[in-house]
Amino acid sequence: MNVFRSKDLKQRLALKHSWRNLLNWLKGFIFGDRNPLMGEVHDVSLNDLEVDMPSGINLQSSGSQTATLISEKIYVIGGSDEGIFSESVRIFHKSTGEWVVPIVLGTKHVISKAHSSVLLNKERILVLERDAPTDDSIWFLEVDTPYVKEQRKKLGKEVVAWSKGLRGDSPVPIVISGPSGVGKGTLISKLMKEFPSTFGFSVSHTTRSPRCNEKNGVHYHFTDRSIMEKDIRDGKFLESASVHGNLYGTSIEAVEAVTDAGKRCILDIDVQGVRSVRASSLEAIFIFICPPSFEELEKRLRDRGTETEEQIQKRLRNARAELEQGRSSNLFDHILVNDDLEMCYANLKSILGLDMENGEARQHCTKSIVLPKGHLVLEMDQKVLIHGGTTEQGKPSNILYVLDASSLKGGAPGRTKGLNIYAIDSVEGGMGLNNL
Ligand SMILES: Nc1ncnc2c1ncn2[C@@H]1O[C@H](COP(=O)(O)OP(=O)(O)OP(=O)(O)O)[C@@H](O)[C@H]1O
Ligand SMILES: Nc1nc2c(ncn2[C@@H]2O[C@H](COP(=O)(O)O)[C@@H](O)[C@H]2O)c(=O)[nH]1
Q1: Residue 58 burial (CB < 10 Å; 0-12/13-18/19+)?
Q2: What residue's CA is closest to ligand 1, atom 10?
Q3: Rounded to two decimals, what is the model's pTM?
Q4: 262, 275, 312, 407: which has the fewest C-beta neighbours closer than 10 Å?
Q5: What per-residue confidence (pLDDT) applies to 289?
């Protein structure tokens, strides 16, 4: 019997099991001989790993670390206080008997002492923090996702990446591209002005000098080339490109700042950047803006008066190639001609579903959960069961949380979205199911 295989999980659970039966059944999985997780190690002292440890290190005192076995590697999460193992992620290679400290990419994260971990799909470890603020408790350590594989190949070293788990689906970012002077900034400003609580702008980094009306941190993060190049090498950018002789890039932090504020992110990037974002884990809508004619594009660029003649010539040369790529490739989901500004803006709003009266309404669910202290976790068929521990009042918890990881989206270097969590709590004569 495997009640957690059904898509219609709630219904089958409700029909087949009383609360007590379910708990007993679960205990069999967690403590008894029905545990399907043979070979994985959860919430253990490193002594349990039965591997030869380097001498002189008191592993007993390393306390609440977790270890997860994936093929020949054991991923140990959580640093020790003893100094030697201060890194929060280390990998033990069973075949060579060596410890490796991987390059840790993705969202900056310091693992708390008290956490549980469970392997999902052999590509990411779900880490549940016990004493973290409620909406900061679900994290993924990606160990073999496409992003990690790509970075491992690029850097030639062992790589892991953190991504924060976000519940529910937030609306996908909007990527706007088009030649310089076509009116992208003008359209984005109109959108942000009309829908201030819906949209947020991804503030790019650039090595070009600020124009007289531009503010650092608002229009761009103006930066030195050497600093930006280092940050790119360190994996802090979702994409970057050399555009009209300067370096431009979207940092992971810029996108996350907007999504964390509960807003829909807008990116204004060139066609090279669009290719990189398309190839990344960021799901987005891609819109290309065209001028009504090349002459009109030149006129707009000149009238703007922000570039020298030499820069205008360079931007116009690049515009020809960009227009060709934008129109002919399959890079874009929508192409808009910005002839009459108001008409183009109306079309943009229509694409974004904002032409209806209450277009500003979509916000993602923010209701939070409190994971019980001392909980147990196990994974079955992409459903993670979190059970036990104590309530905030110190009483034994009767709540079983089910975290459905079957529809995860995104992931490092950004957020992992699409988590669905519901609680099954004990009620007289059966169970109650609550979506959170
Ligand atoms: N539909 C339009 N008709 C006439 N002028 C327009 C229209 N749209 C924008 N403009 C003007 O064209 C100029 C360039 O617009 P904008 O700065 O928004 O372009 P952009 O695509 O963001 O350029 P860049 O990529 O260089 O930042 C601005 O002076 C703006 O006021
Ligand atoms: N690939 C990226 N391109 C970007 C980014 N930010 C802006 N841009 C593009 O650069 C040109 C020139 O912009 P300007 O402000 O100097 O006129 C324009 O096409 C922008 O779309 C970025 O982060 N990445």
Answers
A1: exposed
A2: 183
A3: 0.67
A4: 407
A5: 97
349-395: pLDDT as tens digits: 999 988 765 444 443 333 445 566 666 777 777 788 877 666 666 66
Q: What are the pocket residues of ligand 2 if the criterion is a CB atom closer than 6 Å to any ligand atom?
A: 180, 204, 208, 239, 241, 243-244, 248-250, 268-270, 272-273
CA dist 272 and 78 (Å) reads 38
Boundaries of every domain in the chain = 6-169+366-435, 174-351
- From ligand 2's centre to the CA of 146, what distance in Å? 27
Residue 413: is the preceding peptide bond cis (ω within 30°)? yes
List the one residue out of 103, 143, 285, 262 whose CA is nearest residue 277. 285
Q: What is the pLDDT of residue 280?
A: 84
**CB neighbourhood size of 143 (10 A):** 24
Taken in order 269, 270, 276, 279, the sign of the CA dihedral is positive
Active site residue 362: no
Q: Which ligand is nearest to the CA of 305?
A: 1
Q: Residue 70: CB partners within 8 Å, gap ≥ 6?
A: 119, 122, 143, 144
Q: Which of these CATH numbers, 3.40.50.300, 3.40.50.200, 2.40.480.10, 3.30.870.10, describes 174-351?
A: 3.40.50.300
